[in-house]
Amino acid sequence: MKFFAVLALCIVGTIAAPLSADQAATVRASWAGVRHNEVDILAAVFSDHPDIQARFPQFAGKDLASIKDTGAFAVHAGRIVGFISEIVALVGNESNAPAMATLINELSTSHHNRGITKGQFNEFRSSLVSYLSSHASWNDATADAWTHGLDNIFGMIFAHL
User: Tell me: the pLDDT tens digits for 112-154?
Assistant: First the structure.
């Protein structure tokens, strides 16, 4: 049990500077505008980076247009976007750091076990930011808040890959 407490503290410690309340509010507001676009977000990621689509056995080798409107695609897109929504809901409150650390550690472990690379995580990040900047209210402050938050999250993920 002590091991997990120490591990959680180490993970939380990798967040150099948590988002300010204003930054967290900016992230939440921009996310609110797209969080129900699960299918479109995952389709954008797959379109930008077919190597990521190839990592999903149920979607590998299939034409994106033929899978985008399927139930299986919608369910998986919902899982991915749901994870992001959980993290977005937790940012900006230091007391939520252990919960964030737990969620991010679980994601990191499961993706490490599947052989997902830092490069593929960075590709996902790039597509997510591209989607956000095109479909959400976006300005320099929004870009800075997302960059700061994603730097924190991806730092935690990469510490466990």
Answer: 999 999 999 999 999 999 999 999 999 999 999 999 999 999 9
- CA nearest neighbour of 128 among 91, 77, 67: 77
- Kindly give, in sequence order, each residue whose CB lies less than 8 Å from that of residue 25, ignoring residues fewer than 6 positions away: 92
Q: Which CATH fold topology does 21-159 show?
A: Globin-like (1.10.490)
Total length of the chain: 161
Task: Evaluate whether 107 touches 17 at the Cβ level (below 8 Å).
Answer: no
Question: 116: left (phi > 0), else alpha (psi -120 to 50), else beta?
Answer: beta
Output the CA–CA distances (angstroms, integers) from residue 79 to 12, 18, 22, 28, 99, in the order listed.
24, 25, 27, 18, 18
Q: Which residues of the chain have a pLDDT value below 70? A: 1-16
| Residue 45 near residue 84 (C-beta atoms within 8 A) | no
Domain edges within the chain: 21-159
Supply the pLDDT for residue 7: 41
d(CA 90, CA 87): 5
pTM: 0.88
pLDDT at 9: 42
Backbone phi, then psi, for 55, in 5-degree steps?
A: -80, -10
